[in-house]
Amino acid sequence: MIYRTLIKKTLPRFLDTVSKNYRLIVPEQKGRETYTFRPYSGFSNVATEFLRTVIPPKQFFLPPKEGLFHISGTSDIEVGTEEEPFSIIFGLHSCDLHGIDILDKAFSYGGRDSFYWRRREKTGFIGLSCLPDKYCLCKSMHTDFIVDIYDLFLYTLDEVYLVSVRTALGDDMLRLCPDLFREPTEKEIAEYKDRIEERESMFTRIMDITNLADLLTLEYKSDVWEQYSHRCLFCGSCVMVCPTCQCFDIYDSTDLLTDITVRWRRWDACMRKDYALVTGGHNFRGARPERFRFRYLHKEIGFAEMHGKATCTGCGRCSETCPAGIDMVEVVRSIRE
Ligand code: SF4
Ligand code: SF4
Q1: Quick one: pLDDT band at residue 86, thresholds 50, 70, 90?
Q2: Which terminus of the chain is more exposed, N or C, with fewer CB under 10 A?
Q3: Hey, whose CA ends up nearest to atom 1 of ligand 2?
Q4: What is the mean pLDDT of residues 158-167?
C-alpha cells in the first residue's frame, strides 16, 4: 500500500483524465437533499460533500431489472452477454464498500452468478471519506473503516486529499497524471490522524448490537413485531434502498407479435406480501408480523450464519427513506427492552 497527496483543487483535472480512460460514475445532486450515481458529465456536477445516494451502488452489478435470456419462436436461446465497458465508481464511502463486499460473497455462494460478476469484475472503486449524519450507524456495525476492495481511497483533509493506493488499477489511475500526486508531508499525516479522532467523536447514533443475534432469536415471539407491523406500510422501500438486500424475482414475458419470450430478473422485497407466495396459493409469510420480523432476522442472523457477518452496513438509507418513520435503532431497542 502506498500513500500520496492530491491537492483538492486538482481533483477536477484528475477526474477529467480518468473519465477519458474509463467510464466514470460519480455522485450528483438530484433533488434538494438527494443524490444519485450518474455517468460523469463534468466536474461541476460532482457532489463531493454528499453522504448517501438514494439507490446504492448495487444497481451497477444487479440492475433493478434485466433480461437474462430470450427465446425466439424457433426456440433459439440467446443469453444476455452484452459487453460492459470498464467502469470506475468515484465517491464510495466505507459503508457502501462493505455493502459491495457483502454482495460479492452473496453472489459467489454456491457458484458465481455470471450476470453479477461480469459487471463487477469490470468495475474499479475510488472511495471517499465522509462525516456521519443523524442516520449513520456504521460505527455500531463496525463498517466505519474501509474494507479492502477499493482501488483508491481519498481521505479529505483541509487543502488536500490523502490518497491510499491499494491496487495496480489504482496505481494506473495515478499514472494518468503523475504530476498531481506527491508524497504526504508529516503535517498532512498529523492532520489525517486528527481527522480520524474528530470523526469518531461525531457519531451520535449508536445501536447496541451486543448478542443481537441471540436476542432476536429468543424474542422470536415478541409483541414488538406485531406492534411495528401495524405501522409498516410494507412498501418495500427499505429493501430497495438497502445496499446489501439482493433478493430478486424471476419471471417470463412473451411478446405475442414477435413471439419472443424474455426471462427477466428484477429486484424483489421480502416485505412485500406476495414475496413468499408459491404455486397453489400458500404464502409462507402471509402475516404482517412474520414479514416484518423476517427482514430483521435475515439481516442480522441469516447471512451471518453463512458468511460470518451481518448484512447491515449502517448506511442509514432505510431509516431516512421509510415513509412510516420506522427506524432500525428504535426497533432493536424495543426488542432489547
Ligand atoms: S420502508 Fe418502512 S413502511 Fe416501507 S416496508 Fe420498510 S419499514 Fe415498512
Ligand atoms: S438495513 Fe438499513 S442501515 Fe442497514 S445496510 Fe440496509 S439500508 Fe443501510
Answers
A1: very high
A2: C
A3: 312
A4: 97
Same domain, 226 and 179: no
Instruction: Tell me: do 30 and 130 sit in the same domain.
Output: yes
Nearest CA to ligand 1 atom 5: 234
Q: Choose which residue among 326, 329, 332 to substitute to test ligand 1 binding: the one with the highest number of ligand atoms within 8 A of its C-beta.
A: 326
Of the candidates 142, 170, 200, which is a domain's last residue?
Answer: 200
Domains: count for the chain: 2
Ligand 2: which of 139, 209, 299, 300 to mutate, most ligand atoms within 8 Å of CB?
Answer: 299
Compute the distance between CA of residue 219 and CA of residue 225 in angstroms, rounded to an integer. Answer: 9
Distance from the alpha carbon of residue 143 to the mean position of ligand 1, in angstroms = 23
189-226 pLDDT tens trace? 999 999 999 999 999 999 999 999 899 999 999 999 99
Indicate yes or no: pTM above 0.90: yes
Mutate to test the pocket of ligand 1, among 227, 232, 330 (most ligand atoms within 8 A of CB): 232
Q: Is the residue at 123 inside a domain?
A: yes
pLDDT tens by residue, 232-290: 999 999 999 999 999 999 999 998 888 889 999 999 999 999 999 999 999 999 999 99
As to burial, measured by CB atoms within 10 angstroms (0-12 exposed, 13-18 middle, 19+ buried), residue 197 is exposed
Instruction: Tell me which of 200, 234, 261 is where a domain ends.
Output: 200
Domain that holds residue 306: 212-245+269-336
Burial of 334 (0-12, 13-18, 19+ CB in 10 A): middle
Q: How far is the CA of 104 from the centre of ligand 2 (A)?
A: 17
Q: Answer yes or no: do 293 and 169 share one domain.
A: no
Q: Are 181 and 157 in contact (CB under 8 A)?
A: no
Residue 223 and residue 187 in one domain: no
Q: How far is the CA of 233 from the centre of ligand 1 (A)?
A: 6
The predicted-structure confidence for 112-124, as pLDDT tens digits, reads as follows 999 999 999 999 9
**Alpha-carbon distances, residue 239 vs 56, 122, 206 (angstroms):** 11, 26, 21
